[in-house]
Specification:
alpha/beta; 2 domains; ten-stranded mixed beta sheet; six-stranded mixed beta sheet; 22 strands; elongated; binds S-adenosylmethionine; methyltransferase activity; methyltransferase; transferase
Length: 485
């Protein structure tokens, strides 16, 4: 006799866990779906959970008539088909789906287990990954049917804006990621969120919520970050130099002492007065006043949120910088830049109100995070807040200041900045950084973390520079090791 529950991989998601999943999506993705699709919707607990967070239309498919009737009864407005996902023809409904959240929990059963039951609950195309020859024969084409359901959905929706969030075995999630990498499938981000399947479904298998965000700006993903539901970082898996890695116990050769000094950006605690915006060639301050001061002490300013999309000479903000180095007396401004001095004096109270004790006993209008390095032409900067580290070379005609949420290395030579930036953005460095950062922290990438990158230890052969360029870079920056001595 067939065990129906097993044959149909039937583990209905408890309503409170379905709510946890939907809430997670709602809280972490700025995405308002027109449609929620549940490809094997069971009694419809995901629909029920979604009502609290989204006003989207609902669409489900379910093979079990009792379940689809229950789902329909509880969600009269939902379109629910009672049929197999494997025979359902998507094309007839594809037109109506706009921005879609594909949500759910596909059946937990593999094609091999189904074989034992003599079951036909299978996709028509079993060699979905198009394995050839020996691979196809030697069992590589064994798969969980949830894997084929998810991959089919990803193919169907590949040209649309959607987020897919599905509960599945962790092995299924990893296989899907590998397949997406292999086929250069583009998404914005792929995440795995661990959960305890014993507690939720009474099944002892590593399980997760797999989230594939294809809502915008898609590109081939070579990494997947693994988290818990509270967003605490667990691990990273992915491809480095085309080789798959599981990051557990990862240790890097890069670990050491950085030869360059990482700097934190400028700190003034007086943004209303010091930070300016350009409005038709006029500087405006945070009090909406027109600011007429000499140009010399005004510099372009980059904040954390600007780094990722930095474009040369396009700036939203500017900053008035009162010192060339820390503790420097600011009285010199009076002589040389009288308009600037008058502006500072006019807003003296705002500076006096600065709460932090660091400003006490300092010259008036003092700032922190200022030195020769602030005035160097090229900066390789990162936001301390980013969960995925991205480094950018920041520059303009005038030195660009970065705010104190960012860290940077400063260079006078453009090539040095470019090489350093490529090293920092390399898979090896990013993996290393992620393996030593506290991803649960508000600022995962601190000066302490960044200062562990030892540039001498980097494998320069993987960079796209000539030997001469690398040699010159190393010599200029004291990284050249002459093996003869
Ligand atoms: C793991 S349960 C999840 C149910 C529901 N999505 C939830 O999360 O509560 C899998 C569901 O898939 C249904 N199912 C199994 N094979 C199916 C198929 N070929 N087409 C559509 N639904 C199927 C089962 O009846 C079951 O309701």
């Amino acid at each position: 006799m067939l065990d129906n529950k097993k044959e149909y991989g039937d583990y209905q998601t408890p309503l409170d866990f379905a709510s946890t999943v939907v809430k997670y999506i709602k809280n972490n993705y700025d995405f308002t779906p027109d449609f929620i699709i549940e490809p094997s919707c069971g009694i419809g607990n995901f629909f029920e959970a979604s009502k609290k967070y989204y006003k989207s239309e609902m669409f489900g498919i379910e093979i079990n008539k009792n379940y689809s009737d229950t789902a329909k009864k509880n969600n009269p407005k939902a379109i629910i088909y009672n049929e197999s996902i494997f025979s359902y023809k998507w094309d007839k409904d594809m037109e109506k789906f706009g921005k879609t959240l594909i949500l759910g929990n596909p059946p937990w059963v593999s094609n091999t287990e189904l074989g034992k039951f003599g079951s036909k609950n299978l996709p028509q195309k079993t060699n979905l990954k198009k394995y050839k020859g020996l691979e196809a024969l030697s069992g590589m084409s064994n798969f969980d049917i949830s894997e084929s359901i998810i991959l089919n959905l990803l193919n169907k929706f590949s040209k649309r804006k959607f987020i897919l969030a599905m509960l599945c075995k962790k092995s299924v999630a990893i296989n899907i990621f590998k397949e997406l990498y292999r086929t250069s499938y583009k998404s914005r981000n792929i995440k795995i969120i661990n959960f305890d399947s014993k507690k939720i479904f009474n099944i002892s298998v590593p399980a997760c919520l797999l989230i594939i965000d294809c809502s915008s700006d898609t590109k081939v993903q070579n990494e997947v970050n693994i988290y818990n539901f509270n967003n605490s970082y667990v691990d990273t898996i992915g491809y480095a130099d085309n080789k798959f890695f599981l990051n557990t116990n990862y240790s890097s050769d890069l670990d050491g002492k950085c030869e360059f000094e990482w700097r934190q950006g400028i700190k003034h605690d007086c943004s209303k007065i010091c930070e300016l915006e350009l409005n038709k060639k006029n500087y405006m301050n945070g009090l909406k006043e027109k600011v007429e001061i000499e140009e010399d002490l005004v510099y372009p300013l980059i904040k954390s949120s600007h780094i990722k999309n930095f474009k040369e000479n396009v700036f939203k903000k500017y900053v008035l910088v009162t010192q060339k180095k820390m503790k420097e007396d600011t009285l010199w401004i009076k002589e040389k830049y009288p308009k600037t001095w008058n502006y500072l004096e006019k807003h003296k109270d705002n500076f006096m109100k600065r709460k932090s004790s660091i400003y006490k006993k300092m010259p008036q209008y003092s700032m922190f995070g200022i030195g020769d390095y602030s005035y160097m032409k090229y900066k390789v900067a990162i936001s301390g807040f980013y969960k995925d580290p991205i480094f950018k070379v920041i520059f303009s005609e005038k030195p660009v200041m970065v705010d104190d949420t960012c860290y940077f290395l400063a260079f006078e030579n453009k090539k040095d900045a470019e090489i350093v930036c490529d090293i920092l953005n390399s898979t090896e460095t990013i993996r290393f950084l992620k393996s030593i950062s506290d991803m649960t922290a508000k600022r995962p990438f601190t000066k302490k973390v960044l200062s562990r990158i030892e540039f001498k230890k980097f494998n320069y052969e993987i960079l796209n520079y000539t030997e001469k360029e690398i040699l010159d870079f190393k010599i200029r920056n004291g990284l050249y090791i002459n093996k003869l001595f």
